[in-house]
Amino acid sequence: MGPLIPHELLSPEWNNVIALIIGIAFGYLMEASGFSSSRKLAGVFYGYDFTVLRVFFTAAVVSMIGILYLSKLGYLNFDDLYIQPTYVDSAIIGGVIMGVGFVAGGFCPGTSLCAAAIGKIDGMVFILGLMLGVVIFSEMFPWLEGIFNAHNLGGVTLEDTLGLSNEWTTAIFAIIAVVAFYGTTILGRYIRNVRY
Amino acid sequence: MKKRVLITRKRYIFLGFAMVAAAVGLLFFDGLPDATRLQADQLLLKSMKKGHYINSDQLAETIINGDPSLLLIDLRDSVQYAHYSLPNAMNIPYQKILNKDYVGYFDQDQFKVVLYSNDHLIAEQAWLLLTSKNFSNLYVLEGGLNNFFSTIIQPKEPLATADRNEFERYNTRKAAGYYFGFPMPRTVSSGTSSGISETGGILKGKKRKAITIRKKKKKKVGGC
Amino acid sequence: MKELKQTNKIFIAGIVFFSLILIGILTMKKPSLPYQMTAEEAIQLIGNKDKMVSINQLSQEGYQLIDIRNQFEYANGHIDNATNVYAADLFEPFSIRFFKQLKKDGKKILLYGKDIHEASDSWMILSQLGFDNIYYLKEGYNGYQLLQAKKSLASLKEPEKPTLDYANFFVEARKKMKNAAIAASAPTTKKKAFTIRKKKKKKVGGC
Lengths: 196, 224, 207
Description:
The complex is a heterotrimer.
Chain A: H1 14-32, H2 38-46, H3 51-72, E1 86-87, H4 88-105, H5 109-117, H6 121-148, E2 152-154, H7 158-161, H8 166-190
Antiparallel strand pairs in A: 1-2
Chain B: H1 2-28, H2 40-49, E1 53-54, H3 56-64, E2 70-74, H4 78-83, E3 90-91, E4 112-116, H5 121-132, E5 138-141, H6 144-153, H7 164-179
Parallel strand pairs in B: 1-5, 2-3, 2-4, 4-5
Chain C: H1 2-26, H2 39-42, E1 52-53, E2 63-67, H3 71-76, E3 83-84, H4 93-104, E4 108-112, H5 116-128, E5 134-137, H6 140-148, H7 166-183
Parallel strand pairs in C: 1-5, 2-3, 2-4, 4-5
C-alpha cells in the first residue's frame, strides 16, 4: 500500500500539503517539549536537563517500531522507502560543525525556527547566522565539492553494514532508550537545583 | 502530591515496558509473508483471464504505427537475440528479469511492455512472476516469435472459397511482412531496398531507440 | 499538576500507538497459502525442463494425473485415471486438501491441459506455494489424442524451439525472389494491391 505518494495513492501535489501538516505538528511538539529554550537544549550537553535526549530517542524508537509493524502488516513497502545516502567524510565534518554550533548557539536549525516563531531574539539571530552559513557554503561549494561527495556509500542501513537485522536493531535501541531514560531520571535527582 | 508523583512514575514505567515489549515483539512477529506480492489465487485468476495476451496482428500493427509507448523485450538468450529479433527490441534474458539493472523496465508505468520468446511458454512464466510482484502494463506475445513468423512474415494464403475478411487480413499481413523485411518482389532487382540489409534479420540498420525509464519512486526528503 | 497533565497526554498518545499496533495485528488476514519461495528464487522455475514430463514417460512412473481443463472438456474425453480439478478451482479448500494429501503420500502430481501453456501457469503458481512434487505434461491432452489415434507426435512443436532459422530465412527468401525475378525477366511481375486494414484501435488487456 504505502508509501502513499510513490505508489500514487496520492498525487504528488499532496506533497506540500502533507509536509505542512507534519511541519505544524513537528513545531507544536517541539514547542510543547520546551525546545524553544536554548538553555533547555544545551542542558543535554552540560548535563542538567535531558529532555532533548528523551524526546529524540522516543521519536526514533517510536518511528522504528511503527515502520517495522506497518511493513510487516503489509501497509508499507519497506523497499520503496527512500534512504538518504551516506557520505562518510561530509557526515563526520558536518556532524562536528553541527555539534559545535548546537552547543554554542543553543539551537539546532529546527528549534531555532521554533524559537523565532514565539519571538525569541536569540532564535532570530541564530537563523541569520544559519542563512549566512548557507551563503558561505554555497559560495565555497566548488572548493568543497571534493569533500562533499567523498566516500559515498549509497543508501546503506545498519542491516547492510553490521549485518544486524532491522528487528534486532529496533529491540536493542528500545532497550537502550529505556535504560537511558531511567538513568537520566536518576541523574536528574542529583542535579535538580540547577537554575535555568 | 506524593500520590501524583507515584501515578506519574507508574505510567512512565508502563510506557517504557510497552515500548520494549513492542520492539522485542517484532523479533517474534513474522507478519505477512512478502506482503508486496500478489496473492496466489488472485494471480491465477488474472492469468486465466488472458487479458495480457497480445496477438501477432495487433503487435505488428502497433510496431508499424510506431507507437512510442511500446517496449519490446526479448527474453531469449543473447545469442538468439543477436541472430534475430524484432525491431527495437531489448534483450533481457529471462534469468535476469529481476536483476537490479533490469527490473526498472518492468516496474514502471510509462511503457506498454510486450514480453516474448520463441514460444510463449517462457514469456508467460516470466509474466506470471513479474505480475506476482505487482508490476503492471505487461503483455505477452501470444505464440511468440514462431507464431509471429508464421502469421506475419509467412502468412498462409487463404483458400479461394474463404470470405473477404480472410483475404483482407492476408493482404494486411503480407504488407506487414514487407515492413518486417520480407523482400518485396518489385524492389529486389534494383538492388537497394529501404533499410533492409542483405544479410541480417529484420531492419538491422534501424537504430535502437534509447530508452530511459523514469523511476517510479524515490524522492528526496530532508532531515531535521 | 502540570507534570501530571503532560504525563496524561503522553500516556494517551502511547496507548493509542500501541493499540493501533494491536488492532493491526488482530485484523491481519494471513493468506491461507503463502508463497514458499521469493520471486528471485522462482526464476529458476521458468522454462525448467526437469518438471516437464513427456507423454512417453507417462506410464513409467506413478503419476497422479490432474486434468485442469474445465468439466465440459474433461467429460468430453480425458487421459485414463485422471482427476478433474478445473484451474479456477485450484484454490478451493477441497482441492488444496487433495494436493496436500498427495504430497503427504509422497505422490507425484502431473498437471495437464489441452497443451503445455494451459498447465504451465497453474504449475508455476503451485510450485511457488511449496508443492515441489508437481510436474506438467509437455504435449498436453492434444498429444494424448494423437497418441491414441496412433499418429506421430511430430506435428506438435517442442516448446521454446525456434521453428525456423530466422536469420537465414530472409537471405534465402531474397535469393529465391531474385532468381524468380530473373527467370521472369523483370517487368511482368504481378502487381498486387494491398489494402491496409483501417487502424482499428483495439484495446488490449485491462483489469
